[in-house]
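User: I'll paste a sequence; please echo it back and then give the predicted structure.

Assistant: Echoing your sequence first, then the prediction.
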Amino acid sequence: MKFHGIIVFTLALAIPVFGQTLPRRTVTSLPEHLDESSGLLTFGRNLLLSHNDSGGDPELYIFDTLGNDLGTISIDGATNVDWEDIACDERFIYIGDFGNNSHDRTDLRIYKIPIPAVFEEQTITAEVIEFWYPDQTEFPPPDERKVFDCEAMVALGDSLYIFSKNWSEPFTRWTKCYSLPKTPGSFEATLLDSFDTGALTMYMGQITAADLSLSGNRLALLGYGGLWVYSGFSGSDFFGGELVSFSVNMWDVTQTEGVSFISENEIFYSDELQYVMGFPRGQKLYYADLGEGLAIAEGGRHLAESFDISAFPNPFNSAVRISIDGLGAGLAPVRVGIFDVNGRMVYEMTVGGACMRPAGGIHPARGTTMHEYTWQPDESLPSGVYFVKVNAGDAVSTKRIIFIK
């Protein structure tokens, strides 16, 4: 999907709702002609394939982790209406031409090509899998039912699985999973399941890419603001697995639209070239090790699955007492952050068990599950709406507070 111009944040556009921040490092800049990377495949740890999205040429671009352009695979018998993701199995590559921002497409398709014996400049003829959604009857539907865009796909067993990108207004947060046969032909997609991203805004909750780990036991769903990782599921019951979520792009807003596992705990992901206030951002390949974040979640499971946040007084004019009830006495870290309406963190601390910092303001009573904290905003902070976010293991809760000087 293309965004034109400057990204403008509305009231709660970038308020994070995720368990932890994705640890990442920049690997390389993408080849010059790959400025709208919207899908990513990794072969080994050094060879990658990607493609541009809507309106690009029907081509796959080969490059390495140094950013070297290694050639182009032209796809014969294909057009790029809106290529949005790429997946593979042991023998074939699948290219998803199913971007549907306007929700009026009736020509959704997936191109199927054999994995080349040698990754070099060549032309490969594609077979075509055409499909439609069983639950879409309007082209386009009204805003509240605009849930038929797609930018994410994986291959598992004898099926392809695609994940919807939700454009509903008001935003419903849900992403749907459909299945399709891998064989060429025309098919009605089968609606299998859905999951609640938990995001407060459309920007934070849209799914833009997907991949399965090499074992097929871990699913990564990438978005502009987050990464959702499901593990331990059975077969294709992806959302029946255990979920760990990460925030992405909190300080560098770009369109992250490609993700690929390189091991069970490691991923590459890519973003598109984006101009923000006239300055270029993105068009890069990133690396992230999920192991630390997954380990934090493992350690935090003995914490309460839910908890309550209260604030008094609210609105407040000098200080507010924040009470967090139900955290338990676990040793895993609990993260408390306060954000303004633009998603900018104005205060952060880590509390709980071995990571307790009493001097920082959180003072749990011994033998209880109540944590209380008095926050006095810095004099430079303006009046307005702020959000308290607490992460405890897999549980996340947010409280809206109003500061009036």
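The chain has two helices and 32 strands. Confidence is low (pLDDT under 50) at residues 2-16, 299-305, 352-368.
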